[in-house]
Amino acid sequence: MSSIRVSVLDSDALRQGDASLIEGWQRDGDARIWIDIEDPTEALLEELLEKRFGFHELAAEDSLSKNTLPKYDAFPHYDFFVFRAVEVNKLSAFLGRNFLVTVHTGKLQAIDEIHDRLPEDKRIVSNGVDYLLYEIVDLMIDAHFPLLEKIEECVDDLQEQIFLNAQPAHLDQLLHLKRDVNVMRRQSLPQRELLNLISRGDATFVQKQHLIYFRDIYDHMFRISETIDSERDMMSGTMEAYLSVIANRTNEIMRVLTVLSTIMLPLTLIAGIYGMNFEHMPELHWLHGYPFALGRAKTGICEEIGRPLLSGGSS
Amino acid sequence: MSSIRVSVLDSDALRQGDASLIEGWQRDGDARIWIDIEDPTEALLEELLEKRFGFHELAAEDSLSKNTLPKYDAFPHYDFFVFRAVEVNKLSAFLGRNFLVTVHTGKLQAIDEIHDRLPEDKRIVSNGVDYLLYEIVDLMIDAHFPLLEKIEECVDDLQEQIFLNAQPAHLDQLLHLKRDVNVMRRQSLPQRELLNLISRGDATFVQKQHLIYFRDIYDHMFRISETIDSERDMMSGTMEAYLSVIANRTNEIMRVLTVLSTIMLPLTLIAGIYGMNFEHMPELHWLHGYPFALGRAKTGICEEIGRPLLSGGSS
Amino acid sequence: MSSIRVSVLDSDALRQGDASLIEGWQRDGDARIWIDIEDPTEALLEELLEKRFGFHELAAEDSLSKNTLPKYDAFPHYDFFVFRAVEVNKLSAFLGRNFLVTVHTGKLQAIDEIHDRLPEDKRIVSNGVDYLLYEIVDLMIDAHFPLLEKIEECVDDLQEQIFLNAQPAHLDQLLHLKRDVNVMRRQSLPQRELLNLISRGDATFVQKQHLIYFRDIYDHMFRISETIDSERDMMSGTMEAYLSVIANRTNEIMRVLTVLSTIMLPLTLIAGIYGMNFEHMPELHWLHGYPFALGRAKTGICEEIGRPLLSGGSS
Amino acid sequence: MSSIRVSVLDSDALRQGDASLIEGWQRDGDARIWIDIEDPTEALLEELLEKRFGFHELAAEDSLSKNTLPKYDAFPHYDFFVFRAVEVNKLSAFLGRNFLVTVHTGKLQAIDEIHDRLPEDKRIVSNGVDYLLYEIVDLMIDAHFPLLEKIEECVDDLQEQIFLNAQPAHLDQLLHLKRDVNVMRRQSLPQRELLNLISRGDATFVQKQHLIYFRDIYDHMFRISETIDSERDMMSGTMEAYLSVIANRTNEIMRVLTVLSTIMLPLTLIAGIYGMNFEHMPELHWLHGYPFALGRAKTGICEEIGRPLLSGGSS
Amino acid sequence: MSSIRVSVLDSDALRQGDASLIEGWQRDGDARIWIDIEDPTEALLEELLEKRFGFHELAAEDSLSKNTLPKYDAFPHYDFFVFRAVEVNKLSAFLGRNFLVTVHTGKLQAIDEIHDRLPEDKRIVSNGVDYLLYEIVDLMIDAHFPLLEKIEECVDDLQEQIFLNAQPAHLDQLLHLKRDVNVMRRQSLPQRELLNLISRGDATFVQKQHLIYFRDIYDHMFRISETIDSERDMMSGTMEAYLSVIANRTNEIMRVLTVLSTIMLPLTLIAGIYGMNFEHMPELHWLHGYPFALGRAKTGICEEIGRPLLSGGSS
To answer: Quick check: B267 and A309 CB within 8 A?
Structure first.
């Protein structure tokens, strides 16, 4: 079900409501309008975006399509942006002189927050729709940081576990994490480029005095993509470490086996040669010699060697 | 056998037929013509392209040669493009004010589809030959997506199988997949560059109002080459994972061998020393002691250890 | 607790003191002022920076935030810089015609040193606030070199230890070192870019005749980031070496085991076949034959093989 | 022995001969001359190039030196090029308004072919010396393709052999192949750059209407360097595959050993414990029991396990 | 001990001597001067460079500091360069209209050679101080080639030895070689950039007609940095090869062990079961059966297997 939320700002007075508010608003008037469309249908987009606002069909299509990467297209009476959010696929925004239309599939935290803050935040109301867009994108971009921190923790955690007890499951987790980070990277690079472009003043309907705000988001975005790169680096290191830890473990086990064989094989040979048929072997005449012999073997040697061997990994 | 299909669009009337339609058309007239040549012969190209249309010999040669990479060459009265399709080697296109000549070896889905849609699609007819070219290239580029998804599935599948039971055959598949992706990459980079150049307005016979359509293809092409890069990344990860999984498996097997030896070798030594000539070994006198002894060994120890060992891989 | 240190330079006379000195100073006067703020509070920044000096809220926020990367923002009556120091997160600097405001969290060696040198150093006093900024940044950047040398020593040391006796702990240290170097790299690249930009003359309030000083810092910064890159390279080499050293060790151990088995197993078989029931085995009748047999096995063979095996690693 | 071949084209009449033809030709006349010098001596170059044609000493030196990379130097009355051929080190070319001097050490297929074709090819004669240069370079560049295909086949072959039976010799071949490809790459990059520069029209004595021909060579050169890159990629993959195949093989062998030990060691222990002194062992009394026992062991177990083990590799 | 050598060229007459010659020379006269300072002291530099010639303090400092990377700084009446030589840290050069001051720590072959050649080489004398600088730098740069060839030989040698008998010491050598090459690379990149800049004509006191000479050095420098890159590549390949060779060796040894066990263990079991108490074992009654049994085991089996095992590596 698609839902439409409309906010109209007229002479600093704010009215919030549903699609019915659109009718009263005029493109060449002074009133500014923000229309947020959640889970749009093709019909709605055509009706509202193409017919009512005269947006280009390709832009309207892009706002529906699932995989569009962040981009900016300039049109005569509006700017078209696609941004990427952490939670949803993307946020499409049509920004004009006195209107902002945002389209997204799925709930978007940043939109909700700004919508609720609008009645109280004089500043957004007085600064215009481009500043409104800044506030939304700013919240959206900053939502990347907790996610990145969580990924960093995951990698740290995996690294620690690998040093404790490397297992194929860790590799699997690492590969999945890597793929997630790769997806983020693929989207963050064009997003960074997009914000760079806006902050340079290339977007027609972003006012000069607000460029510095977008520059600020760009700086955050730059930090995000740097962090992503460094996480990729860490993961590669962890991958290599995994292999080394396993190689080390094999080496340890082999040493145990070799030390054991070095002691046991010659003794076994000696035992084989002489058949231990010496005349002086008093144990043979003990009553409990048989069970004792087995017992000593088990407790004596296993105790020494068994510990590091068994704690070295799990099956 | 080379085949020629001709479509003439005159005052919004469309006639489709074979090479005989070319004669009626004039380069300085108003009628627009689309000539599609499948599996051309050298003679045909020389006759039709060099003599009738006056195309440059190098362009005509390029449209025959098998390995030309995507490119754009500007000539006084036409633009020459080479695009890459998924199914066939390439599509060469000569675009003039009122003509479009497309040349390809082998059947090309996109061409067939547009050819069939032409009689019904008013828009293509009225928008001119550059828009017609857009429609063809758009279909051609979008044909990459299902292929890329299939490759992604293959890699996922391989990764899963490697974690279950890594085998050299998986490596072999991975290397073949990698080569295919490398070929795609090698062709997608100049193709992306070519579309960027067209969408910037560098091609003479693409009208300004249609640039945005080529920009849209460029965005798709950008996503394609990003996806290719990320698939290459995934494959490298899988390669590394393979090695780690094998190392892990060797480690597991070595541990089994070592645990086994740690238990067995000392016991064998003890048995060797005392010859088990104890006075109190009642089993020696049992009737079925001999078969029982062998049986216990087989079921007792193998049952415990044999399972993970045998399921760990196949020969 | 935030602390403020103020230095006022009036007609070559220097007065140093606390925040009370700010009042006497005027933005359009001739006196120059340097205000250093350590561990600022939000309230203080708003009061002092935004109200008294009229700095932009975003710049004021950046000077508080923990993770801002090195940057430069131009404002009408001042330049805003963020630099990175080795000891603290960052140094924010507001540079105007006759004022320099530096903000940092935590003690900063370079600031303290310049503050103390100020009364004696005629040159800083006479050259103005941009030269003062140069002196601070110069000290701050040069503090990287001892750190880099220490890291280089660490890597050398690790490499040597790995060749002597590779252990998982070395890997762990290497990964931690790598992360530290990655963090340095992430910060040094934008810092280098920032210094390049200043030395090119892009900052409004750095005088032309002082550009060469910033160019000198830029050269140092360039060397720092080159050194970081080469350290990353060395670490990758060490990582690979680790794996090879372990593989080598496993190989050595396996050879010992195989040589041992090649000698022992056939002998054991022979002993098993003939039961050594030969008629001519005089040792069986010795009194001390039993203990002697065990003893010979231990000293004879272990002496030869045991040494390289045991020195090859530790458990 | 240096050899000189001269072709003079005067009013579409062609005379071919030795150095004596040079005397009749004049720099400001209409006749065009092509001088090809094979295996030049320093004296000859100084006499002919520096004195007769007035070429710069550095250019003359470059045309002798063995390792010069592809380059272009502009001089007032001529262009100086260095190209790289597959067979010989390089081809130096001095191109003026009406002369072309080519210098090379060793036989060069392309030169011979064009020299022989000259009397029959009206086109070369009428198009001038820059078109003549194009024909030579075109043949020279296209000689890379068969070589690249051969390398690709080699790598494919090696890959296949590695999967069948990996051996250190394969590694060795791979490293040698890699070095050859690296050398080609090192030369192809500046060559590509050089052709790009010529096709852009930067060379003074290449006529505008012939630029498209050099553009065509550039496209081929581009494809060559792309192919080289992809071959490097394939080789890296093969290198990694080698390691994985070996790891796999070790794993297989270890499994055989472990399965064998799991079966044999417990049985040997049991045999050791009971000494097999059971009362009911009828085989002991058979006449052929001794040879039979050995025989069974050999055929029974070796037959099952021996095959994959021996076919798994060679010593 | 710092040493100063001075050469004064006045109307094509050359006088060479010590620091006393400086006094007679005047900055606005026609006489040209070359001052070479070896192992300078801080005092000397201040006295001579800062006071007598008026060089900037930063440039003077740079000419003393040990780690400055190649660079160019333009000053009103002179150019300041830092070049890197193979033998010493660096060569600093101050080039003016009629003076050249070169500063270096340690003996520099190129300087000595040019100094000695000066009296005989009319060309250097007549071409001016910028040409003199060219001759020095040319010799200095060309001194890289023998070094690079030596490194290439070392890597080839190491590669060959690794295939014959891989040992950790080879790894160690490889890592050291890699570090040396990395240092060369770090210095060659800015040096190349510097020469590019000079050959483009950016240095004020290099005359237009001499640019082509610096362009020639740039071409050499380009080849040097390409060679360095390819050596890095070769080393990475060698590193990977090392690991593969070791893996191969372990594999070989494991196969020997497994084949041995496959033959021996079952036989040992059989011997254990039947105790070889067959009634028909004639060897037991031989006089020399005991020593013969041990002997056969040693010569029989070891001869076959022992060879490849022992030649496969060393401990």
So the answer is: no
